[in-house]
Amino acid sequence: MVGDDKGYRFEPATLTAAPGDGIKFVMVSGGPHNVAFDAATIPEAVKAQLQANMPNSADFSSPMMMNANEAWTVSLGNIAAGTYGIICTPHLAMGMKMELIVK
Ligand SMILES: [Cu+2]
């Protein structure tokens, strides 16, 4: 998660992973950033499992990460294939979002 003179962004903006993988998000610069799944992109049958897989989180949103090298990991254990939208709440208006493709 990066914020600098080129803008605010997830790098990469598209990530493909497999069910069972863990995805580690690292705060690089320009925080605070968080990892917020777009609930509209989460199948109903997946919601409870995804929330359970998100440590220290509520409403599908990770804690804010303030400092460089802070990190947060979500497990994709028992998460169904699909395309999940993720945003950074503080920087959504600046276009900070990504797609997580689980397949
Ligand atoms: Cu951000």
Task: Characterise this structure.
- It is a single chain.
- The chain is mainly beta.
- The protein has one domain: Cupredoxins -  blue copper proteins (Immunoglobulin-like, Sandwich), CATH 2.60.40.420.
- Helices cover 9% and strands 33% of the residues.
- The chain contains one helix and eight strands.
- It has one helix at 44-52, and strands at residues 2-4, 7-9, 14-17, 22-26, 36-37, 71-75, 82-87, 97-102.
- The strands form three sheets. Strands 3-8-7-5 form a four-stranded mixed beta sheet, with no helix packed on it. Strands 1-2 form a two-stranded antiparallel sheet.
- Strand 1 and strand 2 (7-9) form a beta hairpin.
- The chain is globular.
- 26% of the residues are buried.
- The mean pLDDT is 97.
- The chain binds copper (II) ion.
- Copper (II) ion binds at residues 1, 3, 8, 33, 88, 90-91, 96.
